[in-house]
């Protein structure tokens, strides 16, 4: 039976810090710190909305997080510049290993899906721009059930949409909270440790597999699965 793969999008297939060049033009050396704050708050707002059952699309979390980052870093960014940044965020680049890693997957052995906090339309736009969409069977968005990762309900929804079960399903993500969420739900999970500085939370679970890129993800999962 083929193994079902749930590829996280933001931070795993797509580089959420892909606007550093544009940010440097606006704020110079503060760009990386600003980008970090923007991403951290984006995720925090999604967690809050999920817990409060006060859902708004991920793009709204992104917009609110940008406003916070501007205030936190005391950066004077005009309304037009914010609009431009949000427009560019909708066109973030893929990581260099994304297309090759997906292309190497044998569809007799794997059933690869995109699984994201973003809406289906937003994710499809990103994946089409990079050419990654052609290697995926479908896009599963949490927007369909109005919640966010790591709510157990979103992993259950993924299994329903992909017609898979926990034992045959893997999450692939660079986000530790996502990996922990999938493991807690009962799926297997590969953590993509994209930088040496990346840390995994001190939790009662550990990733089924740790990789540093997507280049050999299929081969590594088969090895871990004893296939």
Task: Give a summary of the structure in a few sentences.
The protein has helices at 20-27, 31-52, 58-72, 79-89, 98-103, 120-130, 152-162, 176-185, 217-224; strands at residues 3-7, 110-116, 139-141, 169-173, 188-192, 209-211. The chain has 227 residues and is α/β, with parallel strands linked by helices.
Q: Could you explain how this protein is built, in words?
A:
- It catalyses: an (S)-2-haloacid + H2O = a (2R)-2-hydroxycarboxylate + a halide anion + H(+).
- Keywords: Hydrolase.
- This is (S)-2-haloacid dehalogenase.
- There is one protein chain.
- The chain is an alpha/beta fold and 227 residues long.
- The chain has a 6-stranded parallel β-sheet, with helices on both faces.
- The protein has 2 domains: 3-15 and 93-224, 3-Layer(aba) Sandwich (Rossmann fold), CATH 3.40.50; 20-89, DNA polymerase, domain 1 (Orthogonal Bundle), CATH 1.10.150.240.
- The mean pLDDT is 96.
- Strand 4, helix 8 and strand 5 form a beta-alpha-beta unit.
- 45% of the residues lie in helices and 12% in strands.
- Helix 1 crosses helix 2 (31-52) and helix 2 (31-52) crosses helix 3.
- It is globular.
Descriptors for this entry?
Rossmann fold; 9 helices; (S)-2-haloacid dehalogenase; six-stranded parallel beta sheet
């Amino acid at each position: 039976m083929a193994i079902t793969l749930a590829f996280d999008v933001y931070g795993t297939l797509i580089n959420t810090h892909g606007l550093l060049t544009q940010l440097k033009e606006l704020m110079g050396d503060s760009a990386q710190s600003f980008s970090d704050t923007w991403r951290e708050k984006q995720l925090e707002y999604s967690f809050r909305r999920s817990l409060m059952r006060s859902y708004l699309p991920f793009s709204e979390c992104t917009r609110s997080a940008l406003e916070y980052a501007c205030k936190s870093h005391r950066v004077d960014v005009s309304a037009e510049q914010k609009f431009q940044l949000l427009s560019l965020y909708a066109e973030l680049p893929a990581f260099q290993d994304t297309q090759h890693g997906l292309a190497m997957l044998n569809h007799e052995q794997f059933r690869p899906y995109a699984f994201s906090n973003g809406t289906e339309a937003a994710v499809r736009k990103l994946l089409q721009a990079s050419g990654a969409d052609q290697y995926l069977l479908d896009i599963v968005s949490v927007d369909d059930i109005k919640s966010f990762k790591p709510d157990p309900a979103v992993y259950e929804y993924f299994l329903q949409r992909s017609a898979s079960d926990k034992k045959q399903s893997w999450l692939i993500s660079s986000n530790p909270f996502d990996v922990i969420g999938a493991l807690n739900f009962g799926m297997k999970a590969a953590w993509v440790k994209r930088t040496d500085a990346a840390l995994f939370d001190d939790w009662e679970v550990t990733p089924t597999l740790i990789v540093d890129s997507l280049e050999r993800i299929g081969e590594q999962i088969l090895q871990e699965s004893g296939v």
